[in-house]
Specification:
The chain is built from 5 helices and 4 strands. It is an alpha/beta fold and about 170 residues long. The protein has one domain: Collagenase (Catalytic Domain) (3-Layer(aba) Sandwich), CATH 3.40.390. A 4-stranded mixed beta sheet has the order 1-2-4-3. Helix 1 crosses helix 5. The chain is globular.
Length: about 170
């Protein structure tokens, strides 16, 4: 496996980032690259934000006027990425995670915050590598299978379904 640089910043102060989460994010990024046989040096940026900031970004870049859990900003297309001229690393893109959303979803789905942040990171890494689920169908199923394979390998196997009954909506 080539060198992977994950630049992590915390731009929210609503929730304390638990010990070990930064290492978890780095491990998730690396695990996706290994699974996908991405064998070149890579750089990824991950930023933790609050709901106001992710709402602003979602509106500005996707024209969706609401907060969301995670946004992915790929810097490549069709497997072609810009290269950091100083390091030779492929610049894969930026991941932005709403910590308040992650906390809420972890509670709603009955798993740890670490599992939720791991899921959001793996999900976004697959987007940075060109996977998409927007149109549903087989691509969505393939992406979910890849997410769960990485999370299970990392010991973050899903312990409940993502189904919510009417009472939780």
């Amino acid at each position: 496996m080539s060198k992977v640089k994950v630049i992590i910043s915390n731009e929210q102060n609503e929730f304390r980032i638990p010990t070990g989460v930064r290492m978890l994010v780095r491990r998730c990024c690396t695990a996706v690259l290994v699974q996908e046989c991405f064998d070149e040096p890579a750089e990824i940026s991950v930023t933790f934000v609050d709901d106001d900031e992710i709402h602003r970004l979602n509106k500005e870049f996707r024209n969706i006027d609401r907060a969301t859990d995670v946004l992915s900003f790929p810097l490549g297309e069709n497997g072609v990425y810009d290269t950091n001229i100083d390091t030779g690393a492929k610049l894969l893109g930026d991941i932005v995670i709403s910590i308040p959303h992650a906390v809420d979803q972890a509670d709603r789905y009955g798993h740890s915050l670490q599992r939720e942040i791991g899921f959001l990171t793996v999900h976004s890494m697959l987007h940075l590598l060109g996977y998409d689920h927007v149109n549903g169908g087989i691509e969505s199923v393939r992406m979910r299978e890849k997410e769960e394979a990485v999370l299970t390998q990392m010991g973050l196997k899903r312990n409940s379904s993502y189904y919510m009954d009417d009472e939780n909506i």
